[in-house]
Design brief:
Elements: H1 2-8, H2 24-51, E1 53-56, E2 60-63, H3 67-73, H4 76-108, H5 115-127, H6 130-141, H7 146-155, H8 168-192, H9 197-205, H10 210-221, H11 223-238, H12 242-247, H13 261-270, H14 275-305
Antiparallel strand pairs: 1-2
């Protein structure tokens, strides 16, 4: 071909050079990656490192391999706290998501007036700082003061007793639901606003009623948002810490130092100075949370593909 090009007087093609790598994208991603490595990857690596050691009376901090993990798997306090938050998740998360879904449906419907006002009112509890919200509900729950005490005094009987062994978990679930219904409502409401109006018009022409529109159009369109909200709620349930930890002084005999796995790890570290075992509890709990969240996401994506 080179000879033919010379005979015809055409320019001889030169071998193409390898394109230079463009690093400008990394200049934008770099700050995020640096922060991500510093505040997430590095602490996880350090926690894994700590979990492989144990502070001993003789020999100091010694390498023990997986012995701490085997100890966690046979730790009754850990499993008691885990089963408690699992029960909390199974009951509280569906109730919260159903309430958030109902609120989003009501606000999205054209029959509800002053939708902007109701949207702000429902979302407002989420804007309240968690510590302030728990302190406020702790005052309401108080047996010697607050709303619960006033109602019991008016009725002449202890009808409302949040700080008892039977009702402490529902009482905490009520606080968490009050805090996060508005957050999940916004997720569902944002997904509802993306539904094309043509679908509603076609359903109206077909004679579909409101219930049929909800089950045939809105619920299928919300499936992805429901999966996301469920994953966030599952992670939040396994990370339950603020509410029981702040309420602990009001119910010291009911809320123990190992009421939740996060409280257990926190008290092991800062009260018991057992940093290695605390890191092991945190790693095990993180793995369990990641596995359950992944299973929920996988099942949700399969149903969405169908």
């Amino acid at each position: 071909m080179t000879t033919l090009s010379r005979q015809q007087g055409l320019p001889i093609p030169r071998p193409s050079r390898k394109p230079r790598r463009d690093w400008r994208g990394w200049a934008f991603v770099g700050p995020f990656m640096a922060v991500f490595l510093l505040v997430f990857i590095a602490p996880v690596i350090y926690a894994v490192y700590l979990s492989l050691f144990r502070e001993q009376l003789v020999g100091g901090n010694a390498f023990v391999g997986l012995e701490n993990y085997l100890l966690v798997l046979s730790d009754e306090k850990f499993w008691e706290s885990f089963l408690r938050v699992l029960l909390f998740l199974v009951i509280q998360v569906p109730i919260m998501l159903v309430l958030a879904l109902a609120a989003a449906m009501a606000i999205d419907s054209a029959r509800l007036h002053a939708t902007g006002f109701f949207r702000i009112v429902i979302f407002l509890p989420y804007a309240v700082p968690a510590v302030v919200a728990v302190l406020m509900w702790g005052f309401i729950y108080g047996g010697n003061f607050g709303l619960a005490a006033n109602i019991n005094e008016f009725l002449g009987s202890d009808v409302i007793t949040p700080f008892t062994r039977e009702w402490i978990l529902p009482a905490i679930g009520n606080i968490v639901t009050w805090e996060f219904v508005g957050y999940n409502m916004l997720i569902f409401y944002a997904a509802l606003r993306t539904i094309p109006t043509e679908l509603y018009e076609a359903a109206e022409l077909d004679g579909a009623g409101p219930f049929r529109v909800i089950t045939g159009i809105k619920i299928p369109a919300l499936r992805g948002a429901i999966v996301i909200a469920a994953i966030f709620s599952i992670i939040g349930s396994f990370q339950l810490f603020n509410e029981p930890n702040i309420l602990k002084p009001l119910a010291p005999n009911i809320i123990t130092s190992y009421f939740t796995p996060n409280m257990y790890a926190y008290n092991l570290s800062f009260a018991g100075q057992q940093f290695n075992y605390s890191a092991t509890v945190a790693i095990v709990m993180g793995v369990i949370t990641a596995v359950i969240a992944y299973v929920v996401q996988l099942r949700g994506s399969r149903k969405e593909d169908r």
